[in-house]
Model the fold of this input.
Amino acid sequence: MKTKIFNGTLLTPHRAIGNGAIIIQDGKILDVCQSNPDTSDTVDIDAGGNYISPGFIDLHVHGGGGHDFMDGSVQAFLQIAETHARYGTTAMVPTTLTSEKEDLLRTLDLYEQANQENNKGAQFLGMHLEGPYFAQSQRGAQDPRYIRNPDAEEYEEILNYSSSIVRWSAAPELPGSIEFGQRLMQKGILPAAAHTDAIYEEVLEAFENGYTLATHLYSAMSGVTRKNAFRYAGMIESALLLDMDVEIIADGVHLPAPLLKLVYKIKGPDKIALITDAMRAAAMPAGDSILGPLSNGLKVIVEDGVAKLPDRSSFAGSVATADRLVRTMINLADIPLLQAVKMMTLTPARIMKSDHTKGLLVKGKDADIVLFDEDIQIQKTFVNGRLVFDKVNHEGSRKEIQAKTAGNVY
Done:
């Protein structure tokens, strides 16, 4: 059967179409209409005057709903995908932390299993390996025990082990990083600059050799530095100056309003991808949590809408969801709705070379669709035309569970 979603405002990168409709079939967008056409062969869904948007695409996410991709189970992958779908994410790139090689290989195996079983949450677009080739001085909350320089023998083994890797973040100034980037490009994998103390000259060479994305701009990277009294532009200034894509954790905590506005003013919506960089505590209550695997991860505390080290000396991960990113860019950074949505849809799709199927409400694209209200509160989420979240049904189920629990009925 065909499905028609009507009585909503369709969002494109260039305009909003009031009282539009969209028809989907077999997981694809069959037609996009500027009015509500009469149809007799469709299942009709009333959008209730809400926005009808392309699904959100998260390029960098570690976990959510109490799970981490490195927990060592297929169930963790599936639960994270379902959790973030409730907040509008229809596609994601699961992300690792620095670890032992054996744990990394095991996670890649689990990804492939989970990818076959995932039919209730956000779609997986491939794995993002964050580390272990980082600068110790910019490790952030990454475990220092596993941080090291690029090792050709090691990364060749990993690359030959799995075809599921789509991006890999590394510090471009390390010995062997340029050759590493070149090798990733040969394999069709996106190298990204991250956790780095690189100066402009090093970033420029890396950019020329494939490092076209800056991982979580401003976080765990150098700014202007001085050597022998001379100033040098750091990774931050280099990413802003070069024609480089950037991703930002737009939770309103990692980057305050002035920095969000600055990045937007310089780079624009075509070069910025909004990311959650969420850890397991996303969509969970505040309190104690763990960054990384449950077995040997880092204890953190969640408060003020962010994860922190127990001594509160540093952030230790985001607990954002995609809807919060869009809301923050609109309300805190004064960005127009269409541009905020573009940074969560078409731009990340283009960065990951998925814009031929995702990121737009266009005939023939995947039917990844989100309905949300004026406050970017998600009402429904469709992945490949399949309804994976409905706020009305979800709220009803939650109230039923609460009622049963209150009555000690299990």
Remarks:
- Residues 101-117 form the longest helix (17 residues).
- Residues 55-351 form a domain with the TIM Barrel fold (CATH 3.20.20.140).
- The longest strand covers residues 2-11.
- Residues 400-410 have pLDDT under 50 and may be disordered.
